């Protein structure tokens, strides 16, 4: 006996609440954003990893306005011997004393530098491979280019300024400053970008000269050189292909700004075009070029001798 098929009762609808199930999950996210994926774990680990700094010595290229650090026992002692201006000497808690540490403490106390006992986690944050000793150096307060001219006016002397074009080694900058101070110059002008600034390395190379010689920073070196020319200075570019030998540099008695280029590359095209004249230092055959600071010292000596002879 067969019965009649049962009719199903009418089903109540969902009112569209299940529509999202039909829409799919959208595009697949990148691997770095998918929880549990190896790429996501690597990205998370990289985000937590601290930025690596060079071991020992000052950090390279601190951003404008940032405090620089000198780390390691030998670099700290050398910086203090050179009387690099410093705000604090950080000494690790419980560090083992040795002659270098004792000398650093003595020099810091003599120079009025604050001595702070600091935990190792904080020193690790300041620098890598610090050997329990970190010196903090404040950012240099640069002068305006016109301040260098004002210094010459106050001294009642014809201006003698050295401008650096593309000199990127702070030790060269420090050595140039040392020569400028030694031969009666009134300051050093450096570009704001792509050039060495006054760092702990520059202070050490200057042998203390930066404590009494101003360094000005130019937003645009070419514009500053043109401004100097408008105010009566002769702009002399130092280059191996210069038109004049420095011995024939008769303008040495006038207010002058000597422009020194990077070793090897020399002066940039725009800076060379801005110069009133170019001078050279004749060297023996086979020698490509002189170090920037050495070349600056030779030219400054020649100008100082010419001025001294004229004053007799």
Would you mind describing this structure in some detail?
The protein has 312 residues and is α/β, with parallel strands linked by helices. The protein has two domains: 73 residues, 2-Layer Sandwich (60s Ribosomal Protein L30, Chain: A); 167 residues, 3-Layer(aba) Sandwich (Alpha/beta knot), CATH 3.40.1280. The longest helix is centred in the C-terminal third of the chain and has 20 residues. It is extended, with a radius of gyration of 32 Å.
SSE topology sketch:
Elements: H1 19-22, H2 38-48, E1 57-58, E2 68-71, H3 73-81, E3 88-92, H4 99-110, E4 114-118, H5 120-126, E5 133-137, H6 145-154, E6 160-165, H7 170-182, E7 187-191, H8 200-206, E8 215-218, H9 221-230, E9 234-238, E10 244-245, E11 256-261, H10 269-274, E12 277-280, H11 292-311
Parallel strand pairs: 3-4, 6-7, 6-11, 7-8, 9-11, 9-12, 10-12
Antiparallel strand pairs: 1-2, 2-5, 3-5
